């Protein structure tokens, strides 16, 4: 075999190997594309399935979104209603709070006014109590004064009755004595009779003193020889003998007499029941 033949054989071998490689590659490539196509179709089917599922899910999601929108709209409408109701309640409560605050301020002002009035009334009440106390005190003084005046009226009435009776008795006695004196040829002029101005020896006690400490009642009377106009000494025995002044007899009953202080007592000493009256002091002091 020649060299050219060898070269040709070698070239043919190389070409054969090249065709074998190309055929192998073509065969191999043809098989991979079929599998790839099948795989791709499978993937396409899977993608279509997923797409369908996704579309169904999207439709479901759209429906859910629509339902959610409707629910949200209803919830929003309900919340708007509740907000409006709450705002109305808030406005009403604010109005009530303002009204209550105004009422409270008015009540506080009224309470303050009432407290001021109560304080003023308390002051007026205290003043009225003081005035009432003063009036009651004055009324008691008037009652005491009235009682004293009644006593004086009683004494004066008694003195008047006694004086009237004594006057009648004296007139009768004077008439009889005048008749007797004239029948004996004597004068009935009393100014010519001496010794009638001095009281007989007597001693008695003060039994009653008026409120002015001026008039007194004596435990001795006409039966003891006292007549109106007699003056008696007044003194106190206890705790120590003390001269007080003089008492002039205004009128006399048989067992008692009424007298009056001549001038005033010594040093203005008050006369007391139990003080002694006497025609003389020599045996007492």
Spell out the key features of this protein.
single chain, 285 residues, alpha+beta, Thrombin, subunit H, 6 strands, rod-shaped
Structural description of this entry:
With 285 residues, the chain is an alpha+beta fold. The chain has a domain of 88 residues: Beta Barrel (Thrombin, subunit H), CATH 2.40.10. The protein contains 1 helix and 6 strands. A 6-stranded antiparallel beta barrel has the order 1-2-5-4-3-6. The chain starts with a helix and ends in a 7-residue tail after the last strand.
Give the secondary structure arrangement, pairings included.
Blueprint lengths: L2 H181 L19 E7 L5 E4 L12 E6 L5 E11 L4 E5 L14 E3 L7
Antiparallel strand pairs: 1-2, 1-6, 2-5, 3-4, 3-6, 4-5
Biggest sheet, spatial arrangement of strands? 1-2-5-4-3-6
Quaternary state of this entry equals single chain
- Quick one: how many beta strands? 6
The DSSP helix count reads: 1
Which fold name corresponds to the CATH topology of the domain at 198-285?
Answer: Thrombin, subunit H
**Whole-number radius of gyration?**
75 Å
Shape: rod-shaped
Quick gist of this model?
Helices cover 64% and strands 13% of the residues. The chain has one helix at residues 3-183, and strands at 203-209, 215-218, 231-236, 242-252, 257-261, 276-278.
């Amino acid at each position: 075999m020649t060299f050219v033949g060898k070269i040709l054989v070698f070239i043919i071998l190389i070409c054969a190997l090249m065709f074998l490689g190309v055929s192998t590659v073509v065969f191999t490539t043809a098989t991979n594309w079929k599998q790839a196509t099948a795989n791709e179709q499978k993937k396409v089917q899977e993608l279509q399935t997923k797409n369908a599922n996704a579309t169904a899910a999207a439709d479901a999601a759209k429906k859910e979104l629509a339902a959610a929108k409707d629910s949200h709209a209803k919830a929003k409408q309900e919340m708007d209603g509740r907000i409006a109701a709450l705002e109305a309640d808030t406005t009403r409560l604010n109005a009530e709070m303002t009204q209550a605050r105004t009422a409270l301020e008015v009540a506080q002002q009224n309470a303050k006014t009432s407290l001021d009035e109560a304080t003023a009334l308390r002051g007026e009440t205290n003043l009225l109590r003081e005035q009432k106390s003063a009036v009651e005190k004055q009324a008691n003084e008037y009652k005491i004064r009235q009682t004293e005046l009644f006593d004086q009226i009683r004494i004066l009435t008694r003195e008047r009755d006694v004086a009237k009776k004594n006057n009648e008795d004296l007139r009768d006695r004077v008439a009889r004595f005048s008749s007797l004196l004239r029948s004996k040829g004597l004068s009935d002029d009393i100014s010519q009779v001496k010794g009638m101005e001095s009281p007989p020896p007597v001693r008695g006690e003060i039994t009653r003193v008026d409120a002015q400490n001026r008039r007194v009642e004596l435990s001795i009377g006409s039966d003891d020889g006292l007549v109106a106009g007699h003056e008696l000494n007044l003194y106190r025995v206890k705790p120590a003998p003390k001269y007080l002044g003089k008492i002039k007899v205004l009128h006399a009953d048989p067992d008692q007499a009424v007298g009056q202080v001549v001038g005033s007592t010594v040093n203005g000493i008050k006369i007391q029941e139990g003080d002694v009256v006497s025609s003389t002091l020599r045996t007492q002091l």
